[in-house]
Amino acid sequence: MNRKPEERVDKIVASLLRGRRLKLRAGDAEEKEAITAAARLAGTHQGPQRMHPAFRKRLARALEQSPGELWVTRRSALVAGLGLAAGLAGGGVLGRAFEPARAPAHAPAAGGDVINPTRGRWVDVAAMADLSEGHAMRVRAGGVGAFLFRHGDTVTAVSSICSHLPCELWWEGSTQTLNCPCHPASFYASGQPTDPYALRALSKLQVRVTTVGRVEVLGTE
Amino acid sequence: MTPDDPADEQQAEVVELPAASRATDIALDELELVYAFIYARVGNRADAEDLTQQVALKAIPRLRQGAPASAIRGYLFATARSVLGSFWSTRLGLSEAELREDLALVPPSEPPSEEGVETVQEILAELSDNYRRVLELRFLHGYSLKEVAAEMKSTVGAIKVMQLRALRAAAKVRFPR
Asked: Which end of chain B is more exposed for a tag (fewer CB within 10 A), N or C?
């Protein structure tokens, strides 16, 4: 994280030149111009790219999955001579064909792993009586930051660190979301991102409620 | 149901529709343009595939019967720009104002031609000799930093700094198309 900008940018360049996905970290935003220029140079120097046959096949399968209603008439397709319109009209419903793969707002995103510290210990973080439904409580269990949420007699906890940039999230009561201060990302109390396409879910923490009504989180020394 | 009823029109036209496989090919060709557009901006296949699929997911269900067909490609590219905007703003905090070049782009009216290297060279031509050379060697010839350093009789550390400065300078050059 403390590496010099030229080293961080070179790592991104090297990754792009190997054809790898863009993986960015906090601090990279300072070099956003250089990074977007690198992406465009990497994306342009070989000329316009076509879909990989395997990806095209996957899309084709989705398109051909099921016949259905028409979204665009054949007439409108023919008027403009646009392939997509004709494709929609002839091949059934693109939207319908894609529907099964379309993630609803609360569908599980990737991520959401449970944090299990190697030398973890249960840390007393709050009294059950201090928690109320619909509100988040920010706590720290040693070196682990978390937000607690009460659901009746049980409590859940998610990491207080954004799943994309290592920034401390904050709770917005009006939207019932955890928001990242570093970029426009937010998460539900379940840890699922509000935008199902973009981000991994927040990591979860193990929580228990003791017989005397204390909330403990599995954290660190 | 009158002859002008949209549902009636759909049913009547289904009979004349092209075979599904042919129609799918045509649809995919349209998405090929979207893919090329996105790839040229993110520079890697994995992100380009994800974003192209997002465009399909977002745009296709919203295309309604009776929409002006001439707007369909425009709508797809508007969606592509929105998806790209979200991609960069999520990862780097770029605002729409900073993405104005992408957002203002006109959708291509024909399949892209093989002009990538020329495009890059147009950009590089605007840079100073050293900046142009380091980016040429890295991006056009695929040299490692060490190889660039040897070629330019410099050190790896100095080349890393030069590469960063060259990219910052390249970002200020307006990318053609």
From this structure: N
